[in-house]
Amino acid sequence: MPWQELVAMVGGELDPVTGLPAYREVVVTVPRQSGKTTLVLAWEVQRALGWPAPQRILYSAQTGNDARKKLIEDQIPILEPRKAKLGIRRMLKGMGNEAVEFRNGSRLVLMASGDDSGHGKTLDLGVKDELFADVDERRDQAMVPAMATRASAQMLTASTMGTAESLALNRAVERGRLAVAEGRTSGIAYFEWSAPEDADPSDPGVWDACMPALGHTITREVVAHARATLSLSEFRRAFLNITDGRRGDPVIAIEDWRACLAPKSKLGHPVALAFDVSPDRATASIAVAGATRQGKIHVEVADNRSGFQWTTPRIIEIVQRWSPVVVVCDAAGPAGGLLGALAAAGVEVRPVTAREHAQACGSFYDAIKNGDLCHIGQPELDAAVHGADRRMVADAWLWSRKLSSVDISPLVAVTLAKWAWENAEQSEASASCW
User: Fold this and answer.
1) 239 within 8 A of 223, measured Cβ to Cβ
2) How far apart are CA 311 and CA 337, in angstroms?
3) In angstroms, rounded to a whole number, what is the distance separating the alpha carbons of residues 151 and 173?
4) Would you tell me how many other CB atoms lie within 10 Å of the CB of residue 400?
5) 113 in Cβ contact with 285 (< 8 Å)
6) What is the pTM of this model?
7) Would you place residue 348 in the very low, low, confident or very high pLDDT band (cuts 50, 70, 90)?
């Protein structure tokens, strides 16, 4: 599409004197479903094939799980039929080893979850997809130092606008708009397709002006249906690419959650284990909880992946290795579908009642407010905490899958794991290795 060609042609410019990229940073923000995936993939392939030395390309998305899904479900299917023509040696899909390797030595890999992901390695192209989900600058902290010794390195950001909490993207937008206002022709190339704040969201003329894929891959009928279906704030963000300025009122305050961050915290033994599955079975999470030397409850996501078929063998593996004092799940939810297979494998799962689940949510919230809980800062859990909403049940509340803006299976799993640890038989729970 014309907008993709414009970004590629300008963002890919080389300095005529040095031969290096004119723009070390390229930031693109467009409405949803505009074709960012195709642009990003083309950029990655050009970097892999168009430079004299083998290139190391690092792709990242909201979480490690999202990055894996994008590579395997969106990018690799496009590359597969062109494997020979593009000089691709092999494409790896194994969990934790996902990569595209080229015969010339270039390699496209994923940025895993964790504060230290990407540290200690050189980097030629760093891709930050859907940066709107980041409430901190973790990806920059990993990528920028890794590019320091690579004179021709570039950082590519491609995202729809976010909210007031989208710290990293909002700062990139500020830098980009300033660069445009000052007329800079090096350093940062900034591209934005969005409607003015006061634009009429129902005006097709506004759609024409800010949706570069309209008339190519998106029709007016589709946009009209979205306008009638989505809330005004979500339509403005997704289709007009306008930042949702409402800071919102998350159930767990961001500052409270950050106050519980303890990156070096270690999980004691024994532990309690819990698991949860999203309603559409698209993702699942396994979590553990246990005591620390300081007397706090350490919660951690042990695994979070696409699909749910992997969950049963993984739970069996963790149970055999850790011998948790108890394994729990909300049997009334999607996770209940795993009980039969686990029972057949000899894993006893204690179902959590609705009343107990509500107690677990209240206890989890109170532990955060009181500073009695610690976590190591996992992106998938951070995202779940930030985007989670709740629903009232009598005089208590539960995490709401329907009202939450993200997959909350990591949060549900750690909530239940903490409750299970605290409510396990005292004789078992007190047998900590500390």
Assistant:
1) yes
2) 11
3) 24
4) 14
5) no
6) 0.62
7) very high
Q: What are phi and psi of 195, to 5 degrees?
A: -90, 155
Query: What would the two tokens of residue 296 be?
Result: 């706090």
Residue 85: partners with Cβ closer than 8 Å, 6 or more residues away: none
CA 100 from centre of chain: 20
- Best CA proximity match to 63, nearest among 378, 387, 421, 385: 378
Angle among Cα 102, 103, 109 to the nearest 5 degrees reads 25
Name the more confident of 120 and 385.
Answer: 385
How many angstroms separate the CA atoms of 384 and 396, rounded?
A: 20
Give the span between the Cα atoms of 402 and 399, in whole angstroms.
Answer: 9
pLDDT of residue 287: 97
C-alpha distance from residue 347 to each of 15, 288, 409 (Å): 62, 16, 21
Burial of 369: CB neighbours in 10 Å, binned 0-12, 13-18, 19+:
middle
Assign residue 174 a region (left: φ > 0; alpha: ψ between -120 and 50; beta: otherwise). Answer: alpha
Buried b (16+ CB within 10 A) or exposed e, 216-237: eebeeeebeebbeeeeeeebbb
Judge contact between 283 and 307, C-beta under 8 A: yes
Q: Which domains does the chain have, with CATH numbers?
A: 2-192 (3.40.50.300), 254-429 (3.30.420.240)
Q: What is the dihedral of CA 415, 361, 331, 410, to 10 degrees?
A: -30
Reported for 343-347, long-range contacts at CB under 8 A and 24+ positions apart, including other chains, are: 345/312, 345/316, 347/315, 347/316, 347/319
Provide mean pLDDT across the span 215-219: 95
Q: Coil, helix or strand for 197?
A: coil
Q: ∠113-116-119 over CA atoms, to 5°?
A: 120
